[in-house]
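User: Hi! I'm working on a homework problem where we have to compare a predicted structure to a textbook description. Could you give me the structure for the chain below?
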Amino acid sequence: MVRKPDSEHEHGRIVNRRTTLKSLGVASAALSGTSILGSVSATSSNEKFIEIQRTANKIREKRGRQAMLKFLENQGIEYATVQNPMVVERDDQISTNDFDNVDGSPTDCDICLDFTLYTNTYNTIYTIDMEWTYDLEAGDYGQSPNDGAALYYTDNGWDYYSRSLNESTYTSQYVSTEDDNNNDGVAYSVDDVAASDGDNLYCGLNIEPIGDYSYEEREVFGQYMHTWTDVEVSSSFGVSFPAGISVSYSVDTSVGEETTGTEGDGDTMMTLDQSQATLD
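Assistant: Happy to help. Predicted structure tokens:
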């Protein structure tokens, strides 16, 4: 098991809000006299959770991250957020950039990352979310090829909420899903050249717990890879547990890389587990 970091976490709690409902199922149950509890309720809860999630992302884009988290609290959503500085792998020959997981102020870091895990009322669906902003005065990021991001989890402890990536994941502008056909998580391509100073970029992955694991053993991870080169080259990304994010290039050339330290060796700060975001 990967060691959890000594970090501070934000937590939020409260009451569910109905947005779109499984009205046909409810009406059918009422006519037949059957109960709408049990699995039907759990399914309806998942659908309501997805609608709350969509609304939360719209709020984030208009009013920022803190407004999004406040909205989740007001809908009864429990969450945990990592906010400590992150371990960074360095190669002095290719980069002097700093990556920090800070309080959300883009003036304090080159690429500011926040990593969150939250769940619904029945604890049947969980969301891994990673958000970041750029400080354009910081240095040499914002160069081609695209950067990469990854959300992944303990092998055999989680599975996609849906086998369709369209239903399991979401992204902001400038971020696109890369399906590398594995069961350990999802990688994303990030057009950091197109992004502007202060833009809130994000990606999210909906998952469900499986297997015989304790809540503490079911961990989730987030990782970001910044890449740059003077040569015309494109990048593609994958992810695996416990190795994390991987990248390949269209041209065999030297590409600068700097990656947040999530190599499964216990040194990562981008780690949360199921117990930290589960409703009591």
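For your comparison, note the following. The first strand starts at residue 9 and ends at 12. DSSP finds four helices and 16 strands in the chain. Good luck with the assignment!
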